[in-house]
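Dear Dr. V.,

Thank you for agreeing to look over these. As mentioned in my earlier message, I'm a first-year student in the group and I'm still getting used to reading structure tokens, so any feedback on how I've presented them would be very welcome. I ran two proteins. I've put each sequence directly above its structure. The first is here:
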Amino acid sequence: MKKELFAIPMNRSEHSGIVREIKKGDSMSSIAATFKIPLKDLLTANPHIKDYNKLSAGQDVYLPQ
């Protein structure tokens, strides 16, 4: 079963809206390009990701709206 984007209610501060699950081969820059989001905005929306060069499949990324 392939997971794509889905909207969920968030209880985390400053996060609401869309969550995307990291897939093998994803990078923050490729996600930003795919969703036409400035990379800086994507990085700012995801402070829980400590090393942007070491993303793990299944990890959540918040897409700023």
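The second protein is here, in the same arrangement:
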Amino acid sequence: MSTFKAASLTLIATLLALGILKHWFLVLPLPDSALWKSALGPRAPSVASREASKDEVP
């Protein structure tokens, strides 16, 4: 088997595996936040919530 053929079959197999994985994520009943929570990290409080908390402090 030539190097080109091995590389092309590897690329096709990788794309096929990623496509199957993507479709399984679409089939599973997961909310979007469960998929993106680890990638986005912790969220800082918004400006509106910080201003509201300042109003509550005597």
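From my reading of the second output: The chain has one domain: 3-56. Residues 3-56 form one domain. Does that match how you would interpret it?

Kind regards,
E.
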